[in-house]
Amino acid sequence: MNRSDKTGLVFFPAFDWAITPTHPERQERLLYTRDQIFEEGLMDLPCIREYKPRLAAFKDIARTHFCIPAVKDQVTEAHLIAAGGALVIADALMAGEIRNGFALVRPPGHHAMRIVHGNRGFCNINNEAIMIDYLRKKYGLRKIAVIDTDVHHGDGTQDIYYHDPDVLFISFHQDGRTLYPGSGFTSEAGGPTAYGRTLNVPLPPGTTDEGIHYVLDNLILPVLADFKPELVVNSAGQDSHFTDPLANMKVTAQGYARLNEKLRPDIAVLEGGYAIETALPYVNTGIILAMAGMDYSNVVEPGCVSEGFVMNQEKKEWVEKVVAELTGIWERRDTIDIEVLRSKSEFFQRQKTVYYDTDGINEYQTERLRLCPECGGFLAINSQAYHHSGIQHNILALSIPYNGCHECREEAYEEYETGISRKVYDYVYFQDKVSDTYRGYSREKDREWEE
Fold first, then answer.
1. 73 within a domain of the structure (yes/no)
2. Disulfide-capable partner of 368 in 220, 335, 347, 392 (CB 3.0 to 4.6 Å)?
3. Which domain holds residue 222?
4. How far apart are alpha carbons 321 and 199 in whole angstroms?
5. CB-based contact 246:357 (threshold 8 Å)
6. From start to end of 175-265, where are the E strands?
């Protein structure tokens, strides 16, 4: 593929969307950045090309998510434009119009899981995952790496690709024992068919540029060299900054810019970052300059005193120990004998609970993955959701992977039909990524639809 030397940018501040008027996740997150880069003249540079966002289609969302009751009930126009902004960058990259691109969009998405009952962690739908599934379907890409640099664990993206050996997900974040969402530990390393393709790096509060670059140099870059992805995506959260009000890390704008210079992502998609004036304009400017291959050494935010951000020996040893443990997991990634597991059961099963902090929903899931010898195996999910308002939903969702074999497709469709006939389920869903077909059934309306 021949690409230009340009860096593509999409801005979407979502003026008409907010959880509350004073919520940290609000339009000013991008307005200060836009003012800064226009003031610095970045948009006039020949190596920068700005694109306008577009609406993602409902089908783009249904390809990734099971939205309850349906896609239209979980998204606003702002969500569709934010996801569509990432798709615009993806199309420009694949057309060779740009060398790399940054979708500066909101609302964010990396806490949105495969099942969506509501908003959690400020997220309804997962912009990166929607973009990745779009790239895989439209352009036939297979191996993609997602590096999540948000201070909060990217639990939604992890959930979506936990059983997919062709998507490498690496998240470094503040230790989940000290910060939302309370997950992202080294033991969360992927399902049996994708073991080691999920790598979580929990970091101690107070981690500095030195700490995240140790992780980058000694874990992420070597793993990427082994994995050899066709595309690298940076889930670009910026709330590890030392001024961010929602976390306790000590990363600087220079640290973020240097990370992007070394990581060299093909696409970055904005996630968190809530120091609206003291961090985001500087961090985003540094990232844009780094992606464009330009000098970012003069990007210094107020209050940045390098000698004030030094990790003590205890924290250094913590980071080194975690990196060593994860390196071992990566080296053992192909050691699980699926045939031994299949001899015990045709399905791998796990259970989990999910809390939607924004909407006050408790969800309980039982997930079954068919351990198919011919393909990635279909996924069946039973989900019970209990809303604070008293509403309850019991759903069955079935998903066929992109490489789904005939037997898995037939068996999953039979489960879908059986689910419709069983009165226990309020909604039943069928997601066939082979044929790009996405169906749902509502028991209350006794109606089936296709997204």
1. yes
2. 347
3. 7-331
4. 14
5. no
6. 198-203, 231-236
pTM value is 0.95
Residue 271 shares a structural domain with residue 124: yes
Q: Are residues 310 and 348 in the same domain?
A: no
| pLDDT tens digits, one per residue of 380-392 | 999 999 999 899 9
Q: 421-439 burial, b if ≥16 CB within 10 A, otherwise e?
A: eeeebbbbbbbbbbeeebb
- What number is the average pLDDT over the span 174-178? 97
Asked if residue 128 belongs to a domain, the reply is yes
Q: How far apart are CA 447 and CA 426, in angstroms?
A: 11
Q: What is the helix, strand, coil percentage profile of the chain, to 5?
A: 35, 25, 45
Is residue 268 domain-shared with residue 398, that is, in the same domain?
A: no
Burial (Cβ within 10 Å: 0-12, 13-18, ≥19) of residue 143 = middle
Residue that finishes a domain, picked among 298, 331, 364: 331
pLDDT tens digits, 90-133: 999 999 999 999 999 989 999 999 999 999 999 999 999 999 99
Distance CA 30, CA 417 (A): 46
What are the distances in angstroms from CA 238 to CA 171, 270, 323? Answer: 13, 8, 21
For residue 388, the number of C-alpha atoms closer than 13 Å in the C-beta half-sphere is 8
Residues whose CB is less than 8 angstroms from the CB of residue 196 and which lie 6 or more positions away in sequence, other chains included: 189, 190, 329, 330, 332, 333, 334
- Record the tokens describing residue 87, joined without a space: 């798709």
Catalytic residue among 65, 111, 153, 241: 111
CA angle 342, 344, 345 (to 5 degrees): 65
Contact assessment for residue 75 and residue 440, using Cβ atoms and an 8 Å cutoff: no
What are the residues facing 398 on neighbouring strands? 380, 430
The label of the residue with tokens 């998405």 reads 109
- Please say whether the beta carbons of 432 and 423 come within 8 A: no
d(CA 171, CA 148) in angstroms, rounded, equals: 5
Cβ neighbourhood burial of 295 (10 Å; 0-12, 13-18, 19+): exposed
Task: Please check whether residue 108 is in contact with residue 40, taking contact to mean a CB–CB distance below 8 angstroms.
Answer: no
**Residue 235 DSSP SS3:** strand
